[in-house]
Every structure is written in structure tokens, then in C-alpha cells.
Amino acid sequence: MRFLPKRERDARTTKILPYLPQLPQLPQLPQLPQLPQLPQLPQLIFSTKLAVPS
After folding, report:
1. In the prediction, which pLDDT does 37 show?
2. Angle at the Cα of 15 (from 13 to 20), degrees rounded to 5?
3. What are the angstrom distances between the C-alpha of 9 and each of 2, 16, 41, 45?
4. Whole-angstrom distance between the N-terminal and C-terminal Cα of the chain?
5. What's the pTM value of the predicted model, to 2 decimals?
6. Predicted pLDDT at 22
7. Alpha helices, DSSP H only, in the chain?
8. Taking the CB of residue 6, how many other CB atoms lie within 10 A of it?
9. For 2, which DSSP code?
10. pLDDT for 12-51, tens place per residue?
């Protein structure tokens, strides 16, 4: 994975930004107080990394 030159990265971010206002489908978030099961988080991150093709 190479780091993009800043200009290219900015161009990508600018392309993504117009879609961000669609994000307020987020109010499923108040389920977050279940977070004290955080010790399983490293495992979760690990399995997420495995699930995402690099």
C-alpha cells in the first residue's frame, strides 16, 4: 500500500465528500453504551482486516 501524493489524496477526499451528507442514517448509534465489551475489539479489528481484501 503506497501513500498517495497529497494532491491526489485531496482529490479523492473531495470526490468522497459530496456523499457525506447522506450519513445521518446514523441514529442507530445509541446502542453504543454496550461498549464495555471492548476487550474483544482487537479480535474484531483483526477479523475485519481479514475480511477486507487488501
Report:
1. 55
2. 80
3. 11, 11, 29, 24
4. 8
5. 0.17
6. 58
7. 6-16, 41-51
8. 8
9. P
10. 656 655 655 655 555 555 555 555 555 666 666 666 666 6
Identify the pLDDT of residue 19.
58
Q: Which residue has the cell 468522497?
A: 16
Distance CA 26, CA 30 (A): 9
Rounded CA separation 31/39 (Å)? 17
* 8 Å CB contact between 52 and 1: no
Give the integer Cα–Cα distance in Å for 24 and 26.
5
Q: What is the pLDDT of residue 20?
A: 59
User: Hey, what amino acid is at 31?
Assistant: Q
d(CA 41, CA 47): 10
